[in-house]
Amino acid sequence: MSKKNGSSNVFGAAALACALVAGSTVAGSAQKARRAAVVNPRTAAVREATVEVLRETSEIRKLPVRRQVRSGAQSRAEIEQMLVRNLDENATPEELEASELTLRKLGMTPADFRLRAFLIGLLTEQVAGYYEPKTQEFYLADWIDLDGQKPVMAHELTHALQDQHFDLKRLDKLPKHESDASLAAHALVEGDAMVLMMQYVMRSPARQLAMLRSLITGGAGSTEQYDKAPRVLRETLVFPYVQGSAWVGQVYKRGGWEMVSGAYKNLPQSTEQILHPEKYFTLEAPTKVPFRSIAASLGKGWKVADQDVNGEWGYYLILDEFLQSKESSQKAAEGWGGDRYVLYTGPNKGDVLLTQKTVWDTERDAQEFYEAYAQRTSKRYAAEPSGPEPSVRRFWNTKEGGVLVERIGNTVLVVEGIPETLKVETLVGLLMAKT
């Protein structure tokens, strides 16, 4: 669990960070973890506390304990080793490089940003404890106060109960390249544990005081890496905890823990449903925008490097990185119906093309997004657009290639990095062709 109670959504990287830090998805080497637990001097105390906290967590959450949870304490080095293993198991170097390139193409990270190294440092700093579904074990960081971290234990042991009743490992089997839906599912898991944790804390003034003292003294440790993380990583990292707890709160308000448990059978399908709970309750499903490669039309040596779904949350972050107006960016991202982005790389260094096909609930929603993305593009490239039809099409000549933003009915196309050899009309035809 992140100290801030805080794959891929906007970008493979951001949601991968969520998956690595979230207790619900941490995986690793069971044998090495158990060996570490045996020699760690704090393991006995953690095990004793686990029995007590699990019992009370089960009582609050109304989920019976089906089996006791093995637990222990781990050092910062051991937790870092777990994170490195998990990162290597969940993403190849090529996938991380593609996520890094997508972030850079969107202007969301500096040109010299190195994703893998930063993720390891960020997550090692933030993790105070984690539950591992593959081995059904819980570990607490050995450098933090045990009494002050019992709320963390309640949070992570909620994951153990979720796993016993709903099988959290199935979240690892969600469709690949549908990361907006994956982020929404993790918002359920983490939001559930956050609401439980607050109920656990509110049961005792002593717990409230201990948690407050832990927060004042820094809890798990430094926030240096978190504070200097690119905004997209910071805010997507905490999305399952902050927006997830608000969403679970609305579900709980409607039908208590029974309704929250029912959500594991009917998972939220998009970050739009998390941000607007009524869309979950009315079963407003996202529109599937199919993947169709145009690599062959780009020329010899071009290939697909990455593809995924940004979702409403992703587009809020993409817009606001440059608009710097929360209200305007949120309004423009609302009305999202579905999307698919595809990153292409060419035969030469610097050959990078990013296509985004977005579908909106109404033409008015599409027009609002079109105008907002056009404004973002002008700020992003410090350039003014050209084009005969500014109300539906705008084009920018930039040092990184041509940029097109076009609205066709309730669809908005965004293409960045267009080679001079590719005609815009041909490109639009390829992207709008039915599969």
Provide a brief overview of the structure:
This protein is of the alpha+beta class and 435 residues long. It has helices at 12-21, 30-39, 43-61, 76-90, 93-105, 115-126, 150-166, 179-202, 205-217, 224-228, 231-262, 271-275, 277-281, 295-298, 311-323, 326-333, 363-381, 424-432, and strands spanning 70-74, 129-132, 137-141, 303-308, 336-345, 352-360, 393-398, 401-408, 411-418. It folds into 2 domains: 12-277, no CATH class; 295-432, Protein Transport Mog1p, Chain A.
Give structural notes.
The chain has 435 residues and is of the alpha+beta class. It folds into 2 domains: 12-277, no CATH class; 295-432, Protein Transport Mog1p, Chain A (3-Layer(aba) Sandwich), CATH 3.40.1000. Helix content is 54%, strand content 14%. It contains 18 helices and 9 strands. It has helices spanning 12-21, 30-39, 43-61, 76-90, 93-105, 115-126, 150-166, 179-202, 205-217, 224-228, 231-262, 271-275, 277-281, 295-298, 311-323, 326-333, 363-381, 424-432; strands at residues 70-74, 129-132, 137-141, 303-308, 336-345, 352-360, 393-398, 401-408, 411-418. The model is unreliable at 1-12 and 20-39 (pLDDT under 50).
